[in-house]
Amino acid sequence: MEFFELLRKRRSIRRFKDEKIPRKIVELILKAAFLSPSSHNRRPWYFIVIDDREKLDLLSKAKPGANPLASAPLAIAIVGDPEKSDVWLEDCSIVAEHIHLATFPVGLGSVWIQIMNRKSFDGRDAEEYVREVLNVPKNLRVPFIIAIGFPAEEKKPHGKEVEEWWKVFHNEFGVAYGRGEESRESPRPKG
Ligand SMILES: Cc1cc2nc3c(=O)[nH]c(=O)nc-3n(C[C@H](O)[C@H](O)[C@H](O)COP(=O)(O)O)c2cc1C
């Protein structure tokens, strides 16, 4: 899949078929993660590959919006180490996006499940809940989980609607970038 086609076709997939993902494909996705950049190349991350149905079901109850994990046959939790880098969250975000993107060329779909800074249904900290389910040591963080599976829903690729040219400035904030066709096509929405 060509890179820009991948970017257009990437959508958040939240419903998955009940079909196991071959280990070779899981490893390919992890290889995409290993290729991620990081500040000072510190690579302040760990990955937990979760395919245990009971654990996935428990994780799907971590917070509102974690329900895609209930049908996902696989999830990869990103575990960050703040002691390794002061920009561990940036590094972990990029690695998570590598994983999310890598699922599409191999025929899978995926969605980012935010855990950090979210509350679980009973008002508990969602990260604490996930930490317990996955037995993650206290000094490490679990900012997000990527739910992965064969798509059971179809979504249109993104088109022009995402092109917010009005948010692009030239040399200083507030000065519109370009007067070309593209910027005329996407005026700032009202309201
Ligand atoms: C930081 C971040 C947190 C997100 N958290 C969730 C989440 O907890 N649950 C969920 O279903 N989708 C989550 N998403 C997916 C977004 O809702 C989705 O990317 C957005 O609506 C745009 O849709 P698209 O990914 O199909 O382009 C998250 C995405 C990002 C980048």
TrEMBL record:
Organism in which the protein naturally occurs: Pyrococcus kukulkanii
Pfam families: Nitroreductase
Superkingdom, natural source: Archaea
Keyword tags: Flavoprotein, FMN, Oxidoreductase
Domain Nitroreductase: from-to ranges: 7-64
Coiled coil feature spans: none
Cofactor(s) required, per the database record: FMN
Protein name in the entry: Nitroreductase family protein
Family recorded in the similarity comment: Belongs to the nitroreductase family.
